[in-house]
Design goal:
By secondary structure, this protein is mainly alpha-helical.
Length: 310
Amino acid sequence: MNELPQQLVNGLLLGSMYGLVAIGYTMVYGIVQLINFAHGEIFMTGAFGALTIYLYVLPDGTSMAIALPLMLIGAVMVAVTVAVGAERFAYRPLRNAPRLAPLITAIGLSLALQQAVWAWYPGATSALVFPQIEGGPFEIGGVTIQTGDVFLLVAAPISMAVLAYFVMKTRTGRGMQATAQDPDTAKLMGVNTDRIIVIAFALGATFAAVGGVAYGLKYGQIDFRMGFLLGLKAFTAAVLGGIGNIYGAMIGGVVLGVAETLATAYIADIPGMDQFGSNAWADVWAFVLLILVLLFRPQGLLGERVADRA
């Protein structure tokens, strides 16, 4: 029990990363009812975009105080470019196709992005070292926060606040709400739904890029496969919070992160399961939780917000 506050903070940080990626899933699904399974790879390309800025654009020895904002801009630019390109050339032609077609396309795009980074990025055949923020770790009330987690601790609430303001207070945000509720009526009211969909993909990619930078700072390395499993967990978070519900995506991410961290930390206390080691179960709990949610509350914790377009 002495470790409980530390584990809760660890789970909160991990869940915030899941939530940042889950926002992209839930925004796109809420508007076009598409599960973009390539979103995990958009998260991955954002991390590689940040590393590219650090390695190939900035001079050697640039301090992280200067490098990090520029890396974040590079991450967002790469992730948004990939996401908007995917929407324009892969998903838009299939918008009126049977739902299985864009789903298969998304899976194929996910694999294509992985292989493209593996084949073309220098050194990507193995894990690449990600630059770190100097200093720390920091101890607050007996809880240790690693230096790499400070960025996530600041970025996640700021990202949610900006998103909430954008969706609720801006004209484009209200257009997104209208398109999600009824795209045909939104068109009749003068809303450019194609533009709204592109913005939804771009916003989701922006938050995924922030998550990609946070991942690199937290774990100290990135690789071309990093988006696959984390993307699945982020999708689980989106379903857990209520697919189509933006706030539910972040809450679902936090719940999932805390549940996974606590289960992993205390699994050795369960008789007969300690022989496998707690880390062996780390990736199991997300999908156990997903199954339970689908069985007992399929609409998610905050409820699904998707209009019936049947």
